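Table S7 (text form). Paired inputs.
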Amino acid sequence: MALTTTPFIQRMFVQALKDILTAEKVNVCGTDVIVLIKGSWNSELLRQVARNIVLQEDAILHSEESLREMAVTTTHLHCQQEAVKNVQRSSDLQDQLKHLLK
C-alpha cells in the first residue's frame, strides 16, 4: 500500500511538527512554522480552486459553442422541413392538375 498520497503526507508532516513544537526550545518559532504550513496549504487550495474554475470556464465555453452549432443545425433542419413541405404541396398540386385535365 503506497503511503505517498498528498493528504497523508501533509497530516504526518503537521503531526511531526506539532510533536516537535511541544519542546520548549522550539516554541518560540512554533507559531511561525504553523502559519507557514497553513499558508502553503491555503496556496495549494487556491491553486486547485483556480484550476477548477478554469476547467469550468472551458466547459461553459464549449457548451456555448455546442449550443450555437445546435442552433445552426436546427435552422438548417427547419429549412429542409419547409422544402419537403413545399415539394409535397407541389406534388399535391400536380395530382390535382392531372385530375382536372382528365
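Next pair, protein 2 of 2.
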Amino acid sequence: MAQERMPTIEDVAAAAGVSRSTVSRVINDHGRVSVRARAAVHRAIADLAYSPNAAAQALARGGRSRGGGGVG
C-alpha cells in the first residue's frame, strides 16, 4: 500500500491560487494579505488537511541566527 505524502505549503498555494509567500504570510499572520486571498488559503488548508511540519519550521528558524554563538 502506497503511503500518501503530507500536503506542502506549495500544495496549499496551488490550491488557493496564490504564491507560497502569501500562504506563509497567512499561516504566520504576518504582512498584508487581501481578505479574498486569506480566505482562499484558509479554505485550501482545510480542504488539504494541511499541517505545518514542525521539524521544517525548527530548521528554518535555526537558520536565522541573530548573532552570538561565534567561535573564536
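Residues 9-54 form a domain with the 434 Repressor (Amino-terminal Domain) fold (CATH 1.10.260).
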